[in-house]
Amino acid sequence: MAIPPYTPIVTDATPYAGQPAVDTGLTGLSPASRAERWTSWLHVNRRLAQAVLDAAVIVTIALTFASTFLPADVMFHVVFVLLTVQAFLFGLRATLLRIGIVSIPLLVYANARFFGLTEPEFDLAEWPLMFVIALLVAWMADRVDTTAKRYASLFRQATERLLTVEEDERRRIALELHDGVGQVLAAMTLTLDAAGGSLGPRARAQRVSAARKMAETALAEVRHLAHRMRPARLEERGLTAAIRDLAGQSGFPVRVHVDPQLDPMPALEPTMTVGVYRIVQEALANAARHSGAPVAHVSIGLRDRHLLVLISDEGRGFDPRAAVDPGIGLAGMYERAELLGGSLWIQSADGQGTCITLDLPLRTAQ
Questions:
Q1: Which helix (H) or strand (E) holds 29?
Q2: Residue 11: predicted pLDDT
Q3: Which of 30, 118, 134, 266 is most buried (CB neighbours < 10 A)?
Q4: pTM score, two decimals?
């Protein structure tokens, strides 16, 4: 199932009749909730926040020139703190601009006598280091923001791919129900309607017998479809046993080879188990339908904490780049491997058979 993006649950703040209103102020909020509210506010009111900080810097510099309430170095240190806050919140570009603007009154104050002003002497020795600190903070803030956006984009792409795979499987199941069970049930209905007509006892018995066989066929189709959706043996006995069962039901000889290191198979994560099973299932189904090979091979091995699965045959082969893939098919196999954090390669050519290699980092169930 795809994991939907997080959406805060907003409840109606109106109290029920006869109950006191609930205080919705910040007092009872957890630190995480308070931080989320501040982040949301800054995102919506970015320009306002910048304007407030800029105004604070301007007022501080003006007070430095106009009064002797506090020493100049203290006032300019306040300016530096405000610059650092802006660097953290708004990134490198805004910080570079403001450092350039702040440098002008700073140089004027440090060289007040040159400009005919009577301000106390001011040492600029530490200010280059302070500007470098502000720039480093801005650069790190930009890196964090870029990384967060990148991971959000990757999560969105993974979710979209997962939804695509799920939708393809739903379409495939719908087609199987329509073309398989639906057609059989329609034929059975017509047969029973005919049996209820003006037929002799023998003809009626033949029609009922045919309808019974059709019902058995429909039941077998439903069971087969249920097995394809979630094979029971996959949970009961594990991946290797389920793949051996799958090999026996493929309609042509399939030999399964399991590395002794994986016998017994460690308990894998459920998503990994289902993903590997579905890829093998699709590969064997394609081999049975299209390869014309007398036998296929499935090899399951372990190398450097990676699970390797090879599905090969010596059939007629095909060109993977020119393959027509209307269903989940090859694209779905690639998608599943990528969603599991692994890789999948398909090597094939006309008349040279097919070899599918699945490489997944081994993740065991906790």
A1: none
A2: 37
A3: 134
A4: 0.46
